[in-house]
Write a structure and sequence with these properties.
Layout (H helix, E strand, L loop, with lengths): L3 E3 L19 E5 L4 H9 L3 E2 L8 E3 L4 E4 L8 H8 L3 E5 L3 H10 L9 H12 L3 E8 L2 E11 L2 E9 L4 H15 L4 E5 L3 H5 L3 E3 L1 H11 L12 E2 L2
Parallel strand pairs: 1-2, 9-10
Antiparallel strand pairs: 2-4, 3-4, 5-10, 5-11, 6-7, 6-12, 7-8, 8-9
């Protein structure tokens, strides 16, 4: 199947069902990272991922990695750590610093280029993107950022500079999101870290059905206000 080249003057994407099997989920290339295109993509179960210097690549893998908040796996060791946690966890206190942390704290390099950062900052300023911050005293040591779509949260990236910092971010956020009415966290592609926390794979068709149902369901209208979660 031929890879679709997106036009800059159109926000249309091919159906996710047309994505390649190898590499799994590759659907299209090109276009741009305008907020309107990103919102259009995520509402269709599509996300960008590419290396610096390469064209923008758009993906919708099958299966899809998700985390049901009520199924978060809290290991005995993590439970003990959390009970005596030295961390403070906040919501939307420093989005830019979180995305910078996600971009820089990767030995294998990053796809979070300056263009990507600008795009996500625009989404944050428009109220669509959110961040979770983990602090040790006054130092940012971990966090998560992603896109809120009704009762679904599309987790984009996380980072950790201290023991269990990213696990703490996801643990606290998952519980908070559930209590606000959140039903599903999109993890995109399963990896050992997210799997250890309870993420699982579901068929792309099931994910798209969940997306269609949840994206237009409202949460508590004040739930994304800047605040301390833990």
């Amino acid at each position: 199947m031929r890879l679709i080249q997106l036009a800059r003057d159109s926000l249309l994407f091919p159906p996710p069902e047309r994505a390649l099997r190898e590499p799994n989920g590759l659907l299209a290339m090109g276009g741009d990272l305008s907020p309107a295109r990103l919102l259009s993509a995520y509402h269709q179960g599509i996300f960008p991922w590419f290396s610096s210097g390469d064209p923008i690549l758009w993906w919708s893998p099958d299966p899809r990695a998700v985390l049901f908040p009520e199924k978060f796996h809290l290991s005995r060791s993590m439970k003990r750590f959390h009970q005596r946690s030295p961390y403070r966890v906040t919501l939307n206190e420093c989005f830019q610093e979180v995305i910078e942390g996600c971009a820089s704290d990767r030995e294998e390099g990053t796809w979070i280029t300056n263009e990507v950062k600008r795009a996500w900052l625009q989404l944050y300023e428009a109220g669509h993107a959110q961040s979770v911050e983990v602090w040790l005293d006054k130092t940012l040591v971990g966090g998560i950022y992603g896109l809120a779509l009704g009762q679904l949260f599309c987790g984009e990236s996380m980072f950790s500079r201290s023991e269990n910092a990213s696990k703490t971010a996801l643990l606290v956020f998952s519980d908070y999101f559930r209590r606000q009415g959140g039903k599903l966290i999109d993890c995109q592609v399963l990896n050992p870290h997210t799997a250890s926390l309870g993420a699982e794979e579901i068929a792309r068709t099931e994910y798209l059905n969940q997306l269609k149902l949840l994206a237009h369901e409202r949460l508590n209208p004040h739930c994304w206000h800047q605040q301390t979660l833990f």
